[in-house]
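Annotators were shown the component list below and the corresponding predicted structure, then asked to write short factual statements about the assembly.
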Amino acid sequence: SQQGEEDPQALSIQEGENATMNCSYKTSINNLQWYRQNSGRGLVHLILIRSNEREKHSGRLRVTLDTSKKSSSLLITASRAADTASYFCATGGNPYTGTASKLTFGTGTRLQVTL
Amino acid sequence: DAGVTQSPTHLIKTRGQQVTLRCSPKSGHDTVSWYQQALGQGPQFIFQYYEEEERQRGNFPDRFSGHQFPNYSSELNVNALLLGDSALYLCASSLGDRPASTFGSGTRLTVV
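Structure shown to annotators:
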C-alpha cells in the first residue's frame, strides 16, 4: 500500500517559475526522500531529509519536513524544461529493525515545465 | 562506475506463463530490492535480498519469488502470470540497510 499522497497529482508551469509539490505520510518516520522519474523509467534519488531536520537544500531543490503534520514539500526553483518528470516522496523503514532500506512511496506528482 | 543494470528492458508474456527478470546492483552494493510500479502509481515494495536470503517482503503473493547470487546480482521470478502483473519492475540496490537506494531503469512487463 502507498504511504501517503502527493499533492498536486499534476502540475504545469512555465520555465523559470518555481514548482512546489507536497507529500503527506501516515506513520512516524526516520527519514523521507524525494525521487524523480522520467517517462516511466528508473527513479533518481534527489535528496534525503532526516526526521530531526526541518529543511534541506541541494542546488535548486529545497525540501522541508514537518513531522508534527506528517508532511513534506519539495520546491524546485527556476524550473527548466528538463525538470519535466514525475516526482515521488518515499519513506524508509526503521533502521533499528533493519528495514531502513525498504521504501514506501507516495502516488507522485507529474510536473510539466513548458517553454 | 556502473549503476544498477536490469534486463530485459521490455518483455511480453502470455497469461499463465512464467517470467524471470534480472538485476545487477551498483558496484559496492550488497542489498537488492524489487519494486512493482503499475501505470500511474508509485512503486510498491515486493521483497529485498541480502546475503542471498530474502530479508523483507511486501504484500505480494507467493507467485513472486526471487534469488540473490554470491555476486549480489538478483532475479525476480513470477509464476502463473496474470494480466494485473503488467507493470514496470524496478530493481534498487543499496549498501546494507542504508535508506538511499540506486534504481535501475526497470523492466516493462506486459501480460497479454
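Statements collected:
1. The mean pLDDT of chain B is 95.
2. DSSP finds no helices and eleven strands in chain B.
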